[in-house]
Amino acid sequence: MKKLILQMQMSVDGFVGANADHHWQLWEWGDDSQWDDELKRDFNAVFAGIDTILLSRKMAEEGYLSHWGNAAKKHRADPFYAFAQRIVEARKVVLSDRLKVSRWERTRVASGDLPREVKALKSEGGGDMAVFGGAGFASALIAAGLVDEFQLFINPAVLGAGRRIFDQGGFRNLLLLGSKAYACGMVVNRYAPAG
Prior knowledge:
The protein is α/β, with parallel strands linked by helices and 195 residues long.
């Protein structure tokens, strides 16, 4: 059975979204990344086992798919962008009740009951699923108990306010799977739901 892996960048004080004028993430969309080579290699290693990407409608409409599709073409020789090619090759599923048709390559729209759709995807064979979306989408998946692994990319920043992913409930004890600090200041903590 596939695992649903939630990868989320957050601040030291647990916020995932902040004032748009304040750039706090070591890696945002674009070519500028302050990640060190070891973190890039580890990220690609995890992403090599992903064959399905679950996206929120908002993330898809804001350009996630076209951005990484362009990055895969532009940076073919750059090992950091190996995951961009994986994004292009992977099956993508956009969960939305508003969208009826996909306008993105290798992407379908799934609507309806979030737990039912995710459980159906998990029951399919193949690699794991990564989920990308904003705080609201992540919170809904957490509250429904659908996340099998949390990969929290803790940026060396304190925001003091913003959006959190555990605000809708569904919080439970977590089992630490691993934690690693990187030269760029990022700490990646991996957790599974306990029990």
